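About this split. The held-out portion is used to measure sequence recovery: a designer receives only the structure tokens and must propose an amino acid at every position. Recovery is the fraction of positions where the proposal matches the reference. Here is one held-out target exactly as it appears in the evaluation file.
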């Protein structure tokens, strides 16, 4: 009896009951799991994310990152023309400049070799070069994205002149506003509307060829207040009067560069009824070697700006904005008059503004300026005819745009060795036998890469409009005249 009672007490103790309950639960759960595993489908039989990532049988998957991470469909850009081995050799030399002069902290490139200063114009040229380098396979997708992302970080945070628009000059290494001597200028020195147009043009092409950057490009430009810069059908620059420090708003652009930039702002929806057409009230014509050459009649004594008739502005207008009924004859005459000088004098002629490797370090080598043909001058009107050069970017531009003319062969042959394989293309060759002009710049090398990109795809703005990928700004106030056709 006592033994029976002890057994009863053992079974009725609480810890024993709890332990038995746990054991029963474990046995039951084990049975359920076993039953499920005998009937449930494997992960490869389901449509889960797991099946996409873990399956080794590609036939059982609908898609993978192999397909998802592909570049966008750019078939709307047309049928790209193949580049020859010489084209790619030229591209590699030009890209060498940008490899040597990149500032990863800011994403900016030096405007001149090893000199950490840049402008929005030169940043536009560098952006053109980066787009081309990726397209030609000189840099991979990772390198391209890192460079573009770094540049956007600077463009969206950089200090603006008077909180309106980018300063004329920035330190390429720090992104700080500087003056033309690359010295700190906390208040900035001014704004160039022409420079802004240059970078807008290539931000537009970037967003067109790489749609993932269309929105960042748009937001970078929308930081700017263009109210005082684009008005009354024209463009205006800003600067502080050196004596009074008062803000000055001055009309900017002369025939050639004015139309190149004016068309770019017109594409954004701004009123450019004066600046976007070569047939405005300021156009005049002079005959040089019996070739009619258009120039701007505005007096530099009134507004302090000369009209430099050079190759670059007309070539860039054709390459980026496209050739039309208005600019085609003007471009043809720019080519023809330089060819005629060669025929008459034996001097290979391809003129533009360029850095040079000696004082005064920058010259406008022109077809016509300040009443004089073939004038080589500073921006102050001081002549340096002994430093005339054959401009590499001008020679290559004309050779690309007029490939069937025999003179283009002369141009290409003359400048095809004007480079340092470890530094990039030189700016030019001195006409008088003074050797190479060994100044090396972002603009020359950027233009060469953009010319090759044009050879592959054609005119950039018309192509991007066909793709319906052009930049559209929320802040642009479209005027009725913006829809007017160019006559």
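Reference sequence for scoring:
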């Amino acid at each position: 009896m006592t033994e029976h009672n002890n057994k009863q007490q053992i079974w009725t103790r609480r810890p024993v009951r709890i332990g038995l309950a746990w054991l029963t639960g474990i046995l039951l759960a084990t049975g359920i799991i076993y039953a499920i595993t005998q009937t449930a489908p494997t992960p490869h039989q389901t449509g889960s994310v797991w099946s996409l990532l873990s399956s080794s049988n590609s036939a059982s998957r609908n898609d993978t990152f192999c397909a998802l991470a592909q570049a966008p469909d750019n078939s709307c850009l047309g049928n790209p023309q193949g580049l020859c081995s010489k084209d790619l050799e030229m591209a590699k030399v030009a890209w060498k400049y940008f490899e040597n002069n990149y500032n990863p902290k800011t994403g900016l490139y030096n405007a001149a070799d090893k000199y950490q200063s840049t402008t929005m114009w030169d940043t536009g040229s560098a952006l053109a070069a980066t787009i081309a380098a990726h397209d030609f396979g000189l840099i991979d997708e990772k390198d391209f994205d890192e460079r573009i992302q770094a540049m956007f970080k600077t463009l969206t945070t950089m200090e603006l002149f008077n909180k309106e628009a980018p300063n004329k000059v920035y330190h390429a290494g720090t992104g700080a506003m500087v003056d033309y001597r690359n010295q700190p200028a906390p208040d900035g020195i001014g704004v160039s509307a022409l420079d802004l147009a240059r970078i807008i043009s290539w931000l537009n092409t970037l967003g067109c060829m790489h749609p993932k950057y269309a929105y960042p490009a748009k937001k970078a430009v929308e930081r700017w207040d263009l109210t005082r810069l684009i008005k009354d059908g024209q463009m205006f620059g800003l600067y502080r009067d050196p004596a009074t420090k008062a803000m000055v708003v001055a009309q900017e652009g002369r025939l050639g560069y004015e139309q190149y930039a004016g068309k770019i702002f017109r594409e954004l929806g701004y009123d450019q009824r004066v600046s976007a057409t070569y047939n405005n009230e300021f156009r005049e014509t002079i005959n040089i070697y019996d070739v009619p050459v258009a120039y701007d009649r505005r007096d530099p004594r009134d507004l302090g700006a000369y009209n430099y008739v050079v190759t670059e502005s007309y070539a860039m207008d054709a390459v980026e904005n496209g050739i039309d009924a208005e600019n085609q004859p003007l471009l043809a005459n720019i080519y023809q008059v330089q060819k005629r000088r060669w025929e008459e004098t034996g001097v290979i002629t391809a003129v533009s503004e360029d850095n040079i490797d000696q004082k005064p370090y920058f010259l406008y080598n022109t077809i016509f300026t300040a009443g004089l043909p073939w004038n080589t001058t500073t921006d102050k009107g001081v002549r340096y005819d002994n430093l005339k050069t054959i401009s590499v970017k001008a020679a290559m531009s004309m050779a690309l745009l007029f490939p069937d003319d025999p003179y283009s062969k002369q141009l290409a042959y003359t400048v095809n060795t004007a480079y340092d394989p470890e530094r990039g293309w030189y700016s030019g060759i001195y006409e008088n036998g003074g050797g190479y002009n060994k100044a090396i710049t972002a603009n020359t090398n950027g233009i060469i890469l953009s010319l090759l990109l044009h050879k592959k795809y054609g005119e950039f703005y018309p192509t991007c409009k066909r793709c319906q990928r052009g930049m559209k700004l929320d802040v642009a106030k479209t005027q009725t005249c913006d829809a007017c056709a160019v006559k």
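Annotator remark: Residues 1-47 form one domain.
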